[in-house]
């Protein structure tokens, strides 16, 4: 029996082929991983490798074709209040205002609370995401970034044991994104939640995660490695880049995305039975000379910026 808080074992996802003679699409195959209680795990990989498919299964909205997933040793069979989800596409109820959308989740979570308690709690989270002035607007009257923030407020406000975040900050401008990242760190450290988050932003993953899962390109994708992020907490966006390990980790992740994610696809992993991602510590792996060289590399070149957000936004949200 597993001791991880969440355990996925031998998960495979196949979708039926679309044309007349089309073969089924095997998105990923034989994926196994665990999430420890209170851990913050990010997953990165190229567009289409199957990250959202894993997320949907953990949310209980879809099932693997084969394999199992359990949370606290109970099989995940459908959606549940112990799991909160923020999707790329906001998923708000269009006929409710921003406040009512958040209240809806809070009411479901704490049925015994008075209306006043539910409203106060909901307002606290809407304020946290900077929406206190527009709480009576419906989703159609809000910008994309605002809708995303309502969705974030709703998920955070219900304090789920497992927070599932599918590119939650994708629609936000850099300033708002920074503020909400800070709030997420605060909430996570206070509430001991377990967080599983998809992001395309390498820097964001390093700032937030205890471990970063690296997924190879699909089809037949797999989570090849789990990179340990040993940077001390609390982490600050402004100072983390000055840490001597930052660029060693960052360069490792970028190299995976640019080169190894496709190279590893064709490599059949050795061994039988369950294949968990290989734990990797890029800092320990690199020689002292190598670490110094990478730490002094300039972060401000155009190519560097392109690599940070390596998937074009249109592809992500298209
Ligand atoms: N309902 C479906 N029917 C058929 N194919 C699907 C379905 N849902 C997803 N796919 C395919 O499965 C693959 C994985 O999709 P998924 O959305 O999980 O990728 P992703 O890694 O989250 O991508 P992105 O980073 O662009 O969001 C893609 O090739 C996609 O086209």
Describe it.
The chain has 318 residues and is of the alpha/beta class. The protein has one domain: Rossmann fold (3-Layer(aba) Sandwich). The chain has twelve helices and eleven strands. The strands form two sheets. The chain has a seven-stranded mixed β-sheet, sandwiched between helices. A hairpin with a 2-residue loop joins strand 4 and strand 5. Helix 2 packs across helix 3 and helix 2 runs parallel beside helix 4. The radius of gyration is 20 Å and the shape is globular. Adenosine-5'-triphosphate binds next to strand 2, helix 1 and helix 12. This is ABC transporter ATP-binding protein. Its main location: membrane. It is a peripheral membrane protein. Belongs to the ABC transporter superfamily.
Structural class: alpha/beta
Helix content: 25-40%
Fourth-tier CATH superfamily name:
P-loop containing nucleotide triphosphate hydrolases
Major sheet summary line: 7 strands, mixed
Give the beta-strand count: 11
The small-molecule ligands in this entry are: adenosine-5'-triphosphate
Tell me the distance between the termini: 40 Å
Number of helices, where a helix is a run of at least 4 consecutive DSSP H or I residues: 12
- Low-confidence segments, given as residue ranges, are 293-318
**Architecture in CATH?**
3-Layer(aba) Sandwich
CATH-defined fold name: Rossmann fold
Strand order of the biggest β-sheet: 6-7-8-3-9-10-11
Per the principal axes of the C-alpha atoms, what is the gross shape? globular
- Rounded average pLDDT: 86
Order of SSEs, N→C?
EEEHEEEHHHEHEHEEHHEHHHH
Strand content: 15-25%
Rg from Cα: 20 Å
CATH class: Alpha Beta
> What number of domains?
1
Domain ABC transporter: 6-242
GO molecular function: ATP binding
Pfam families: ABC_tran (PF00005)
Protein name: ABC transporter ATP-binding protein
């Amino acid at each position: 029996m597993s001791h991880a808080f969440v355990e996925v074992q031998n998960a495979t996802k196949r979708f039926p082929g679309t044309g007349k003679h089309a073969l089924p699409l095997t998105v990923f195959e034989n994926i196994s991983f665990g999430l420890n209680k209170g851990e913050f795990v990010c997953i990165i990989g190229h567009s289409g490798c199957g990250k959202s498919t894993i997320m949907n299964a953990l949310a209980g909205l879809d099932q693997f074709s084969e394999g199992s997933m359990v949370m606290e040793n109970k099989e995940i069979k459908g959606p549940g209040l112990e799991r909160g989800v923020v999707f790329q596409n906001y998923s708000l109820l269009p006929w409710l205002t921003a406040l009512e959308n958040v209240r809806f989740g809070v009411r479901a979570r704490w049925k015994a609370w008075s209306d006043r308690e539910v409203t106060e709690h909901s307002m606290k989270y809407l304020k946290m995401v900077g929406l206190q002035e527009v709480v009576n607007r419906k989703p159609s009257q809000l910008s994309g970034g605002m809708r995303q923030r309502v969705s974030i407020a709703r998920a955070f406000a219900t304090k789920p044991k497992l927070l599932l975040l599918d590119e939650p900050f994708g629609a936000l401008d850099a300033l708002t994104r920074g503020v909400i990242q800070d709030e997420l760190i605060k909430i996570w450290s206070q509430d001991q939640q377990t967080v599983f988050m998809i992001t395309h932003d390498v820097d964001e993953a390093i700032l937030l995660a205890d471990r970063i899962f690296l997924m190879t390109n699909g089809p037949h994708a797999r989570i090849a490695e789990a990179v340990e992020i040993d940077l001390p907490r609390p982490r600050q966006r402004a100072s983390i880049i000055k840490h001597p390990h930052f660029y060693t980790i960052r360069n490792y992740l970028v190299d995976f995305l640019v080169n190894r994610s496709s190279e590893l696809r064709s490599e059949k992993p050795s061994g039988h039975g369950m294949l968990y991602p290989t734990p990797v510590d890029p800092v320990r792996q690199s020689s002292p000379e190598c670490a110094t060289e990478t730490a002094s590399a300039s972060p401000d070149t155009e190519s560097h910026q392109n690599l940070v957000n390596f998937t074009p936004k249109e592809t992500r949200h298209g």
